[in-house]
Design a protein that fits this description.
632 residues; alpha+beta; five-stranded antiparallel β-sheet; elongated; disordered C terminus
Length: 632
Amino acid sequence: MARERSRAAILGRRAALLAGGKFVILSALGLRLYSLQVLEAQRYRDMAEDNRANLRLLEPTRGYVVDRYGAPLAVNVQSYRLEIVPEQAQDFAATLDAVARVIEILPEEREKIMEAARKSRRVFLPVTVKENLTWEQVSRIEVNAPDLPGVDIKSHATRFYPYGHATAHVIGYVGAVNEDDLADDPDPLLELPSTRIGKLGIERQYELALRGRAGRKEIEVNAFGREIQEFKERRIEAEPGHDIVTTIDLGLQRFIIERLADQHAAAVVVMDAQNGDVLALVSTPTYDANLFPNGISPTDWAAIRDNPYKPQTNKAVAGQYAPGSTFKLAVILAALEEGFGAGHTTHCRGFIQFGDRKFHCWKRWGHGPVNMTASIRESCDIFYYEVAQKLGIDKIAETGRRLGLGARTGIDMGGEYPGVMPDSAWKQAITGDYWRPGDTLVAGIGQGYVLATPLQLAVMTSRIATGRAVTPHLTRDLFEGESVRARPEVDFQPLGLKDNSLLLVRTAMNQVVNHEKGTARGSRLRDSAWAMAGKTGTSQVRRISEAERRSRVLKNEELEWLMRDHAVFVGYAPYETPRYAVAVVVEHGGSGSKAAAPVARDIMLELERREQQFASGEWPAQIAFSESRDLR
């Protein structure tokens, strides 16, 4: 009996413990349910909503780039792209292999695609497999769509350059976003596989203005990620990028490229000397900018990279050349500003003795008595050896900088080089050596350490022609990030040079082209209402050696192409009312009077012809800006 009572007590205690445990568990469950359904209801409601609704970015339409008359230089055209969403594909590699059985995917392409999938930050973002699908490829993919999970074909706008060869160095091109771009720019739009951003030229300079702002839409999806519907009321449309009107004259740009077709490498800049508009900025050889937006092939890139004439270099702004005798314009202005009289005369007998060296004039037997005007007209080296020696490099450099040499012009495109306008402090800082008198002599004729870009030479010419500190630009409007405003008319500041000094130099430049003894007499504007003023230059690459002379190589033109001098010419027209300034550099062209001046002459004649056509209403057909937007 006692044992039964003891067992009953034990069972009672156990029952009480079990009941207590159940009560605690039920209480905990109740509290948890209360927490989930009441206290944290909003949190889980939001999470459920997030699972139900996927946020998608809407890519904005990239802005157009057109020339000064509305001809399209960079537009958008319809294209088809194949994508795979890793999250939906389940086995990305297997899906990619299945796609490769439908359309061709090269081994190197497959490797890049797999690498992009591995680096993708979010598995629900699509990975681009192939761009610019043909209709046949689109059809094959659509027919096999049920067996290709996560595969989708997207229609999108891709960048196209109607005149890709003519404008590659100015407009540049767009390309795929890389990791450095993502690190520098937090815009989530850059994570979309279709996004292309500016890599060069105006495309890069005005990337933010051209890009626009992304919109967004919300899509309802089921548990399997399949789209059900769009929440229309939550849609925010994308803001298209700004269209950019450049100062470039496409017709003139193309004319210059055709004119330079017989030269291996050259650069030309044409400016409006009054307002700084850059009408043409040419570098040859060039390349097709359309090779880049969807990824250039290794073969095409090798052809550009290995070309000995360097088409990838924008020689107009990044080519640094000794300006040769065109630099004499700066030297003579420095002399006039320092008090040298207009009648200052030097006797040229073909050389001067300086220490144990002879410095020769280009004219072997000399020019005889040479005054200021004749020194420019006939480009006497001896005159400038002596004047430079008396002036000193620091005075020359001061005037050179006033004319725009030795510093970036600030043109609104990347890749500009500053050139070199040396002085005694510069040499000490760069080389650790002091400036020597012999350095001054060679600098006096635009050789030695002096370097300038074709753009700087065009700026120098504009400033001499107008007497004002003209600066160049490439766009009609001013863009600051995403904002835009009309470019105000600029009243450029005076250079601070004496009017008589500028008048003498302009007169001499006129005689260079139009006087019977002028070095560019053969390039005067015949049968034209205009007269061109200018200055020839020869940028020495190296001297003819004694061994070459013994082997009867007596002229620069007889050397191998890479050993010949560069040909340089700067000029402006009309002489009486300066409007257009031009700088021409023909790499290894030899004499400036033979290779560069004729190019400038033909450019000025073309400008005159175009002005006449415009005035008579017979302007060559161009696509109007408002009409060009239909190309989208």
